[in-house]
Design goal:
Elements: E1 4-8, H1 14-17, E2 22-24, E3 28-31, E4 40-44, E5 50-56, E6 61-65, H2 75-91, E7 101-106, E8 115-120, E9 123-128, H3 131-135, H4 137-144, E10 152-155, E11 172-175, E12 182-185, E13 188-191, H5 207-216, E14 221-225, H6 231-238, E15 243-248, H7 251-264, E16 272-276, H8 279-285, E17 293-296, H9 308-325, E18 330-336, H10 343-357, E19 361-367, E20 386-392
Parallel strand pairs: 1-4, 9-10, 14-15, 14-17, 15-16, 17-18
Antiparallel strand pairs: 1-3, 2-6, 4-5, 5-6, 7-8, 8-9, 10-11, 12-13, 18-20, 19-20
Length: 393
């Protein structure tokens, strides 16, 4: 296989020598004229020293590094990386009788930048975030089926690839087909809509945080905002909540929440009620002290740095509304999944909301993404999920 060549400017190899997996366009001194989106390239320092191999792409990130040596990027490479990722998930105890939903590949965190793979029982849902991974999709899909228990691979990249690349991906099965849309998470059953749902169909990154919520739910009146699939609601019910109300602006999400509640609890269990309504409107109209456990898990308010200021205003406003209305002696779970918002900025937004309401608030837990969403120590940008559990007097 022929690799194109990229040569860096003097001094621009330092971050790569620390194994940061991105080459920025401004760091490049020269490159082969024939390089196209998704091509395999070999990166050299200004003095001709080989640094490693990666995928090229157009934009500020010009190369995503796959190796920091001359290892070939072929079927054996992908099989080895996928097997390494799978072995780590086995070590984490995520593949067991009561759990078959987890993230197998988390991009840079698993040394496969541009690739995400979530497992739901016998089905792997694969997303490419770079043209290079899109072009390698068939090799990756067949390598996935060589892992134990994976029979089907669904490719879902219509919304994740750069639109300027003009790749026109089609969401479809590369291997196999639909067996079941049910997945198990900590003994609870969930319908996963990887065909038309958000992301890969389910937010597996909140698994441990849902378990923590279950611990706090007994006897409480729970409000789950931005409920999507109802994950937090289902856990709260198992935890012994007095009542659980689920809210989402999407009627389809509310139906999915209701289906997942019915999947786990008898239809005679009337503790749960759902509402298809705007979150801010619902918080404005709800009675004060109606709930003593609230979950705020909104979609990303800032997908890019340009939206950061408005995002922080949104987080402050949302948390202030919840803190104003929540009953004394309550628990608030509040999250941000915006990669553009760091931990300190999110915490400051929540602090500002608390100060605005002048309530006594204490931090019980500081939350992050689970171990199957690992953060490459050389790529701190991979930390995206931030959460606080607050006690409100």
């Amino acid at each position: 296989m022929t690799y194109k060549t990229v040569t860096l400017k003097r001094g621009k190899e330092e971050s790569l020598q620390r194994m940061h997996p991105w080459v920025f366009s401004g760091a490049i001194a020269s490159a082969d004229d024939s390089i196209e989106e998704g091509d395999l390239v070999t990166v050299y320092s200004h003095d001709g020293t080989l640094i490693g191999n990666g995928h090229s792409q157009i934009g500020s990130i010009a190369v995503r590094m796959l190796t920091f040596d001359d290892t070939a990027i072929d079927e054996a490479f992908y099989s080895q990386r996928l097997n390494d990722a799978y072995q780590m998930r086995l070590a984490l105890g995520l593949q067991r009788e009561d759990n078959n939903a987890f993230r197998l590949v988390h991009g840079e965190g698993d040394f496969l930048p541009g690739l995400v793979v979530d497992i739901y029982g016998p089905t792997a849902v694969m997303q490419a975030h770079s043209p290079g991974m899109h072009f390698a999709r068939n090799i990756i899909a067949h390598a996935l089926t060589r892992l134990p228990g994976i029979h089907n691979v669904y490719y879902k990249s219509e919304t994740t690839l750069p639109y300027k690349a003009h790749l026109d991906p089609v969401n479809d099965y590369i291997v196999g087909g639909m067996e079941t849309d049910e997945a198990l998470e900590n003994g609870l059953r969930f319908h996963v809509d990887w065909l038309k749902g958000q992301k890969t169909g389910f937010f597996v990154d909140q698994r441990e945080n849902r378990s923590l919520l279950e611990h706090y739910s007994h006897g409480r009146r729970v409000l789950n905002m931005f409920c999507y699939t109802g994950g937090f609601s289902v856990y709260a019910l198992r935890g012994g909540a007095q009542l659980v109300h689920s809210v989402d602006s999407s009627a389809k999400a509310v139906r999915l929440t209701d289906d997942n509640v019915s999947l786990n609890y008898a239809t005679s269990d009337n503790r749960h009620q759902s509402f298809a309504e705007d979150a801010f409107k619902f918080l404005d109209n709800m009675d004060k002290d109606a709930y003593d456990l609230i979950i705020l898990d909104p979609p990303a308010f800032a997908k890019h740095k340009s939206a950061l200021r408005n995002a922080l205003v949104g987080y402050r406003r949302l948390n202030a509304k919840a803190l104003e209305k929540i009953a004394p002696g309550s628990i608030l779970f509040t999250f941000s999944c915006s990669q553009a918002v760091n931990k300190e900025q999110f915490r400051l937004a929540v602090f500002s909301a608390a100060a605005q309401t002048r309530r006594k608030v204490r931090i019980l837990h500081q939350l992050t993404q689970p171990a199957d969403h690992p953060i490459n120590i050389y790529h701190p940008e991979g930390e995206y999920l931030k959460g606080l559990v607050l006690y409100v007097e």
